[in-house]
Amino acid sequence: MTAINALSTAVSGLLVNTSKVAASADNIANVHSQGYGRVEVHAKSIPPQHGGGVTGVISRETVQDIVQANQGAQTPGVDVAAEFTNLIQAKTAYSANLKTLEAAEEIIRETVDLVG
Q: Taking Cα atoms as reference points, which of 12, 21, 69, 70 lies closest to residue 41?
């Protein structure tokens, strides 16, 4: 993996985790909204031949999902504790991607110093 590929992969991870935080914030803001369908963002790998990294796949709970949850005696809607867990996971992943960016930047900087 080249430093440029590492940069690209890390940036894609940052973007997906930014989307995860936004989805959790939206879910928490709508915790008491009647009929609100919870939003989730899942990371999906992009094959190396297509540039590598990850992309976010967004899904929203539908009205049918909410009705089925009611019939199954589950509480529909947003679980605030689960959303805060998602926020902690996104923060950790965001930090890891940031460290990857910093390492790739250092490699590029050292390479430029060697060439220059």
A: 21
Residues 50 and 12 sit within 8 Å (Cβ to Cβ): no
Contact 27, 11 (CB under 8 A): no
Where residue 77 falls among pLDDT bands split at 50, 70, 90? confident
The tokens for 81 are 């504790």
Element (H, E) at 77: none
pLDDT digits (tens, 9 = 90+) for 19-53: 999 999 999 999 988 878 899 999 999 988 887 88
Residue 66 has pLDDT above 80, yes or no: no
Q: Are 56 and 43 in contact (CB under 8 A)?
A: yes
Q: CA 65 to CA 70: how far, in whole Å?
A: 9
